[in-house]
Each structure stands twice: as C-alpha cells, then as structure tokens.
Amino acid sequence: MLSRPPLDRESFEARLRAIGAARYHDRHPFHALLHGGQASADQVRAWVINRWYYQSRIPMKDAAFMSRVTDPALRRAWRSRIEDHDGGLDEGGGLRRWLRLAEAVGLDPGYVASGAGVMPATRFAVDAYVRFVRDMPLLDAVASSLTEMFAPKIHAERIEGLLQHYDFADETALSYFRTRLAEAPRDVAFGLRHVLDHADTAEKQDAAADALTFKTDVLWAQLDALWSGYVEPGRIPPGAWQPGEGLR
Predict the structure, then answer these.
(1) How much is the pLDDT for 11?
(2) Which pLDDT belongs to residue 2?
(3) For residue 234, what are the contacts with CB-CB under 8 A and spacing of at least 6?
(4) Contacts of 34 (CB under 8 A, 6+ apart)
(5) What does the buried/exposed string (b/e) look like for 69-100 if buried means 16 or more CB atoms within 10 Å of the residue's CB?
(6) d(CA 155, CA 177)
(7) Rounded to whole angstroms, how far apart are CA atoms 154 and 125?
(8) In this model, does residue 91 exceed pLDDT 80?
(9) What architecture does CATH give domain 15-28+40-231?
(10) Of 23, 96, 113, 200, which residue is the least packed, with the fewest Cβ within 10 Å?
(11) Average pLDDT of every residue of the chain
(12) Hey, how many other C-beta atoms are within 10 angstroms of the C-beta on 16?
C-alpha cells in the first residue's frame, strides 16, 4: 500500500485550527452560563475550585515533558511555561493569580490550593492529560498544547463577561486571564511552528491532530462534570465540593 503524502503546512495548520473550531470548550454551555452572568455564586466557586486542579498540573506536565527532552534549545524554549505558572520564589505566576480569583469569589485560597473538593471526573481528566504528555511521543505532547491557539478568544470573552456581570470581578481578580492574553500567543507561536516543522509525514500529522483532539476532550470533560454536578441539582459526586465549604 502506498503511503499518503503529508499535507502542506498551510493545509495542515488549517486542519488543526478546524479541530478547535469544532471542539474547543468555548462552545460548552457552561461557559455561556458563566460569561453571560447566569452562573450562581456557588457555580462560579465550583468552577474556580475544579479549574485550579487543571492549572496546578500545567507546570507539572511541562516538567514531565522537559524531563524527556534531550535538546537544550527545546528545553530553554519550553521552560518559560513553567515560570509563567509557578512564578518566582516570592511572587508572580499564574497559580498565585488564580488564587487571587479564588479569594475574590469568597473561597479560602488555602482550601483551593489543597485540591480538596475537586470532582473525580476533573481529577481523572487532568491526570490523563499529565500522563499523555509524560508518556506519548514528544511531537504529540507539543501538539496537545495547541489548544492555546484558541485560548485568547475565550479569555477576552471571559474578562468582558465577568466584569459586566459579577461584583467580584476587578483587575486583580481577573489578572490571570489578562496575563494569558500575552503569554498564550507566544506559546502558540513556538508550539505551532514546532508541530508544523516536525509533523513531516501523514502519520505524524494524524497523530498530532489526534493529540489536539484528545486535549479538547480533556477540557470539555471538565465542564461536563461541572454541569452535571452543579448546574443539574443533586448530582454532586461523593468527595466533591459542597456549597458552604472552604469559604474565607
């Protein structure tokens, strides 16, 4: 059987972007609820608690990725992703900014940082993503990060919607999203170039597209869990956050 030729760069990039257009979690009804000002205080808190688990694992998955990279240039380029989230020893970083959001919505930052109350489905999906980046080929791992191509749009919509509809929203509370508006395009520029450069066979292009699809599933599954647990009453699973817990 003759092997298929790979797509040219422009066509392959279009294929990747089409995945986001069809599957990125900005299409999920939970975000319409949140950005439209219709989410209750407890639904916002549940989102902040569960999204924290995802945020907290991003530098861990990036460290796992870097531990397998033998090319110093790739490690240098990737290192900023850990610094963006962890920050310095005393200040800065996306994780600290997320905890400011937690405090703004009335949660104890220490409770949120502990990971207590995270839904089982959230934990399962996020841990699967960390394992994917740790274990799959490096090209697939990089491709899975390309959901960042679609992130600036959702961050901008979130900033606008939260500022318009919620009393807690101010520049301090939303600083995580403001910062990501600048960080994400930089990460995308490198990651997309790397994937386009190295996915030089049809098989590698298929694998990269599958990796990006997997990552959109990870994000979507987290919102499905939130919807099931906190939008549809009475379906909060055992061990997950109960309204009234962890308040400051």
Answers:
(1) 98
(2) 63
(3) none
(4) 43, 44, 47, 158, 161, 162
(5) eeeeebeebbeebbebbbbeeeeebbbbbbbe
(6) 6
(7) 20
(8) no
(9) Up-down Bundle (1.20)
(10) 200
(11) 96
(12) 21
